[in-house]
Structure formats: structure tokens, C-alpha cells
Design brief:
Transcription Regulator spoIIAA, 5 strands, globular
Length: about 120
């Protein structure tokens, strides 16, 4: 299964970005981050709903910097962004990243909660 895929939930498209299988595999993580902009920028601005799963993912400075850059690139295309799987140090990294996107980004404990929030106008 691709780390970036499109699903339909309650008639709305959600782009799922799944890092949960990568663990400490920095190459896969960075390659997936690099695919996010081309995927989202192919859609109209201010229209994309994203669900990012970071459960078990490992961060270092290079990954964190890549995330921050990606967040700034895709922000014009995103309508809402939900994140699941945050634990420990990931919460601190999330806080740093979302300082730039707090108006459209929210963390959730479950995928079901995240999907409901994404499709609610």
C-alpha cells in the first residue's frame, strides 16, 4: 500500500499520508515527505483534506526540517489537516510545526475522530 493515498469518507476526498510503518527508516520518511507537495499541488488551492499518521515514526533534525518545509509548501492547498499517532517527543515536534498552520491543523487520538473533523464544515 502506498504511503500517500486518497480515500473517500462521507463523500469527501481525504489524502492519507501514512508514516506509521516507517519507524526509523529515514529514507522512506524523507521520500514520502518529498511526494506530498506534488500530490497536494495537483488539486485546487484551499481544498485538500489530509490525514497524517505518524504513529511510531522517528524524528531527527533532518526529518523535522523536511516536515516544516513541506508544511509551508502545501499550506495554500490544504483546507484542513488532521494528525494522529502523536506520542512523546512527537508532540513537541508537532507543536513546532503547527505554529505555522494552527488555523487548519488539529491532532486527534483516533482515525475516526480525525475523519469526522475533516469532513465537518
Amino acid at each position: 500500500m502506498s504511503a500517500i493515498r486518497s480515500i473517500l469518507y462521507k463523500g469527501k476526498e481525504i489524502i492519507v499520508i501514512d508514516f506509521s510503518e516507517f519507524g526509523a527508516d529515514k529514507e522512506k520518511t524523507l521520500a514520502t515527505i518529498a511526494q506530498v507537495f506534488p500530490t497536494l499541488s495537483a488539486r485546487p488551492k484551499n481544498s485538500v483534506l489530509t490525514l497524517t499518521n505518524v504513529n511510531g515514526m522517528r524524528f531527527d533534525k533532518e526529518v523535522l526540517d523536511a516536515f516544516k518545509e513541506s508544511v509551508m509548501q502545501v499550506k495554500p492547498y490544504q483546507k484542513k489537516a488532521a494528525v494522529i499517532g502523536l506520542k512523546g517527543i512527537q508532540r513537541a515536534a508537532y507543536s513546532i510545526i503547527t505554529m505555522m498552520t494552527s488555523d487548519i491543523t488539529k491532532a486527534f487520538d483516533s482515525e475516526a475522530e480525525a475523519k469526522e473533523w475533516l469532513v465537518t464544515d
